[in-house]
Amino acid sequence: MPVEQxxxxxxxxxxxxxxxxxxxxxxVGAGPTGLACAIEAQKAGFKVLIVDKGCLVNSIYHYPVNxxxxxxxxxxxxxxxxxxxxxxxxxxxEALEYYRRVAEHYHLHVRQYEWVKTITGExxxxxxxxxxxxxxxxxxxxxxxxxxxxxxxxxNKMNIPGEELDKVFHYYKEPHPYYDTDVVVIGGKNSxxxxxxxxxxxxxxxxLIHRGAxxxxxxxxxxxxxxxxxxxxxxxxxxFNSTVQEIGLDxxxxxxxxxxxxxxNDFVFALTGYHPDYDFLRSIGxxxxxxxxxxxxxxxxxxxxxxxxxxxxxxxxxxxxxxxFIENGRFHGKLIAAHLSEQLGGGNPNFPLDAx
Length: 356
Ligand SMILES: Cc1cc2nc3c(=O)[nH]c(=O)nc-3n(C[C@H](O)[C@H](O)[C@H](O)COP(=O)(O)OP(=O)(O)OC[C@H]3O[C@@H](n4cnc5c(N)ncnc54)[C@H](O)[C@@H]3O)c2cc1C
What we know:
The chain is α/β, with parallel strands linked by helices.
């Protein structure tokens, strides 16, 4: 469905109301959790609108192109739609296919490429303002809100000189552009291990730098021996208990236990993790716990300290992003839908079939 544009020359008050502008529930984020929340609320008869700043399952779309999930397919299912794959673990491609199919099956009403900037108002009458990719502003009203904005948009920065250079990336996509170049991979978890292996297998000269004493214990059980053996064989260089101090145009400076080194370098992948958009959560009045930045919410219903605004998915864990993932976040939708039914009664079961 094409996104209706509101030309910039039209003032917001002149913008005509649209049938989808007044949902019972507006879900911010079309990740697996946002989809699960929308499906469960829709099943309970509520009008639901999902808004995402990118495409459907935008985070998964931005994962490494050839990524394989560590989870078996049935644990990634939402809305009771079976997910079957040829091999034991789904690929990113299969997951994209699956979630598209789910959205189609449930006729989910998703506004892609609209970035939710502000949420104001109160329980029963929230105002949500989005900006689309052309800079046009859109306004929505909703009775209740689910925030399921994930954590993959904001990388944990190292705050070192040179981090802003074009050769430094916080996301890894694919190996080909790095053939026959000197690449440093920073990090000791799955993303770093998999990127280092993929780059090495496709002809890059790879050095892995990690502040810990060894690869993290959460590295996938089939990846860990692979990376450790490549390091032992000297095929992938590695410095543990080491930190990158500075990134130059053609080198990186690394502090190691045996002294400071300058390594020849063309590209850097700083795969040091990601974090939820705490500023956005605070801007809508959600309180965060002091240590781990967990949103204050009722664990039974996921309603936050702001009545009528729910939190769902990985953001519920704050900075502990490895506590909630698709496998368990997908159940948040049922909790929220049950609370909506209890508080608001039934909705309009014809939506979204009667929406434009
Ligand atoms: C490489 C990698 C591999 C992984 N493998 C697995 C695995 O095998 N199994 C597993 O269970 N988990 C896995 N995970 C973790 C899992 O993908 C995440 O925990 C999961 O995507 C979280 O789901 P979510 O719906 O909460 O957030 P997300 O999937 O991140 O979705 C959030 C959505 O919100 C949108 N958004 C953000 N801010 C706004 C805004 N202001 N306005 C509008 N839209 C907004 C984003 O564009 C995004 O589409 C993996 C993660 C990574 C990085």
